[in-house]
């Protein structure tokens, strides 16, 4: 009986090597996801920046209020910014500060946004008015500072 022929293994196929990297489709999907996330995140980020910069005006106006009371303790009337020794801009220079009026019984000081802070549409102008014991906080998109009370509270962080 003849011996069976030895079983030969089929020739080994070499697999094509997988190239490391990304395909064009994967790259496009990734870029589109980044675009969608950016379009959602940027407006929220801009709003947060505007709110944070608004605190610069609040600090400046509160500083004016404090200096006015110090000045009034030694003088018969309230003073202007020069008499108080204060600058016409807020500490971080996002707002211009101006004294609208000052008398023996009260004063009004106004902060208006300058530069990139002007994009803060609803709270572009902040005004602090003191008349005797009556303190009025006002805000608005224009010099009129005529925001509704809910928006006004948000502008002043009250």
What's a quick, concise take on this entry?
The protein is α+β, with helices and mostly antiparallel strands and 158 residues long. 39% of the residues lie in helices and 19% in strands. It contains 3 helices and 4 strands; from the N terminus they run ααββββα.
What features would you describe in this structure?
There is one protein chain. By secondary structure, this protein is an alpha+beta fold. It is built from three helices and four strands; from the N terminus they run ααββββα.
Secondary-structure topology with pairs:
Layout: H1 24-74, H2 81-84, E1 95-102, E2 106-113, E3 125-131, E4 134-140, H3 149-155
Antiparallel strand pairs: 1-2, 2-3, 3-4
- Sheet with most strands: strand arrangement: 1-2-3-4
Strand residues, percent? 15-25%
Rg (C-alpha, Å): 33 Å
Query: What is the string of helix and strand elements?
Result: HHEEEEH
Cα(first) to Cα(last) distance is: 106 Å
Q: Regions with pLDDT < 50 over 5+ consecutive residues?
A: none
Tally of individual helices: 3
Helix content: 25-40%
What's the mean pLDDT score? 87
Q: What characterizes the major β-sheet?
A: 4 strands, antiparallel
Could you list some keywords that capture this structure?
four-stranded antiparallel β-sheet; alpha+beta; 158 residues
């Amino acid at each position: 009986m003849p011996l069976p022929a030895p079983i030969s293994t089929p020739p080994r196929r070499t697999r094509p090597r997988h190239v490391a990297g990304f395909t064009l489709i994967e790259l496009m999907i990734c870029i589109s996801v980044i675009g969608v996330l950016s379009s959602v995140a940027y407006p929220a980020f801009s709003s947060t920046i505007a709110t944070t910069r608004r605190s610069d005006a609040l600090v400046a106006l509160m500083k004016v209020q404090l200096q006015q009371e110090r000045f009034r303790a030694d003088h018969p009337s309230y003073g202007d910014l020069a008499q108080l020794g204060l600058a016409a801009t807020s500490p971080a220079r996002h707002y211009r500060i101006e004294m609208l009026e000052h008398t023996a019984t009260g004063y009004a000081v106004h902060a208006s946004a300058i530069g990139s802070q002007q994009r803060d549409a609803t709270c572009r102008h902040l005004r602090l008015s003191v008349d005797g014991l009556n303190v009025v906080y006002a805000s608005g998109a224009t010099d009129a500072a005529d925001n509704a009370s809910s928006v006004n509270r948000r502008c002043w962080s009250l």
